[in-house]
Design a protein that fits this description.
alpha+beta, OB fold (Dihydrolipoamide Acetyltransferase, E2P), five-stranded mixed β-barrel
Length: 160
């Protein structure tokens, strides 16, 4: 009978310990499941196109910077890849980039990241850019953003 009481007390104590631990708030950050599903991760892409100053792109496409834009810098060191063709992983979040065939549709991308400033010497030239395609679209430019990881000059001409 005494051993039955000890076993019962031990089971009760273990149960209380488990209950107390399950009610201790977690310090690990949690992510909203709806937000996680709505924002796909960035994807590695390679695209070939022409480097253009963002200011020139904005002027050509009549997309002036909004007055609510909090960026301190102007668009002098910001660039866009125009007439882009290439390949990327096909997902539900975006269609494939067209492959370089005659008559294929070309796209434009906003460029960003630490390597972007180095593109200033390639304005008006054709380059191959590798980087991470961000899932969000720039609401002003209506362009997806490639965070440039690397680039190289390639043969070809760009529109004037």
């Amino acid at each position: 009978m005494e051993s039955l009481r000890l076993i019962t007390a031990a089971v009760f104590a273990v149960g209380l310990t488990g209950l107390a631990q399950s009610q201790t708030p977690s310090t690990a950050p949690t992510q909203d499941p709806a937000r996680a599903a709505a924002t796909p991760p960035s994807e590695r892409v390679t695209a070939t196109g022409c480097v253009q100053r963002e200011a020139d792109y904005r002027q050509t496409h009549d997309t002036a910077r909004s007055s609510s834009d909090t960026k301190v810098s102007d668009t002098a060191d910001e660039f866009v890849l125009i007439d882009a063709i290439g390949s990327n992983p096909v997902t539900a979040s975006h269609p494939p980039l067209p492959v370089g065939t005659a008559g294929s549709m070309s796209l434009s991308y906003e460029l960003s990241g630490p390597q972007e400033a180095r593109l200033s010497t390639y304005i008006g030239q054709r380059v191959e850019v590798s980087g991470m395609l961000k899932p969000e679209m720039n609401p002003e430019l209506k362009l997806r953003d490639i965070e440039v990881l690397s680039f190289r000059s390639v043969d070809g001409t760009c529109p004037r």
